[in-house]
UniProtKB/TrEMBL annotation:
InterPro entries: Aminotrans_V_dom, PyrdxlP-dep_Trfase, PyrdxlP-dep_Trfase_major, PyrdxlP-dep_Trfase_small. SUPFAM superfamilies: PLP-dependent transferases. This is Aminotransferase. Gene3D superfamilies: Aspartate Aminotransferase, domain 1, Type I PLP-dependent aspartate aminotransferase-like (Major domain). The keyword Cytoplasm does not apply. Residues 27-370 form the Aminotransferase class V domain. It comes from Blastopirellula marina. It comes from the Bacteria.
Amino acid sequence: MSDFLLEPDVIFLNHGSFGACPRPVFEEYQRWQTRLERQPVRFLARELPEVLANARSEVAHYLGAQPTEVVFVPNPTFAANTIARCLPLGPGEEVLMTDHEYGACRFAFQFAAQQKGFRVVEQPIRLPVESNDSIVEAFWQGVTPNTKLIFISQITSATALTLPVAQICARAREAGILTMIDGAHAPGQIDVNLAEIGADFYTATCHKWMCAPKGSGIFHVREDRQHLIEPLVVGWGWGKEKTFHRENEFLEYHEWLGTHDPSAFLTVPTAIAWQREQMTLEVRQRARDLVRTAVDSASQIDGIERVHADPFFCQMGLIDLTALQIEPDALKSRLYDTYKIEAPVIRWQERTFVRISAHAYTTQQHIESLILALREIAG
């Protein structure tokens, strides 16, 4: 697809890591940067509050939330640190997550646990999974009277598994347990409605599957939970002499982190418009079909196995190369150096996975090239 700036000689099957920004979105990003540099004081001090509020309103509407419940953040790692540092968690209390969670966010809670004395519990979810109900039941085995917060991904990074987050949030609400969802891989890959998910806290990237510029993410906090969240970075939005006045304290505390380039945030509405125009249901389904073809074809090769059944993956799929006994870094280097294939090789629970992503620019030839490379490597 000509909209993307990707190098044409690379088979890019790793949209899941950092995304890829389409040309129209990138050009809008540069337009905002130019506008900022032409008159920085006017832009940051006088114009930014209104244009940022407009962008926040658009992304909130896109995700099924209220504008006063959403702030822009650089990435989900930032939001996870905010929750881990701010929630009043202490000795004897527990944060429950799966053993599939993204490393940086997991580390944020482990670091805070060392400081505050609470425990981080990683509940195993065995692969392959059988049903959403089986996932919920397996995960709920980790809940104890000490569980105060559940932190789980909507789509896991390491294993590309779609988790039934709405079911888990509903059950947690009945038990009086707070919930935070890491939706880094969800918006733009699947439809997201935060009101229906019902999490207390939700974070996501805009620069992955939404195709916005790098460094754009959102942090959603339900209005009745906002009093729990203190700013991770204290700046001009906090004190009596606050420079920026917003609709409520949550926005004042968290929206202005000091001088930075907000252009990535302001470009998100353009990325949303591009999504609606270009990433139609047919285009998404084609990408999913390509991933399914890749997984099905790869699993026919001796030493390679599929991991998930169709309902549990979308535009990211997983194949298991553990039986080939190849060191992950060596495998990743060979895929790129020999075949010009950019795909992550992941080590998880003593297993070696290759994660395959497909987007609008992915072609059948890309998948065929991957399968040919895997056959040669396995041979």
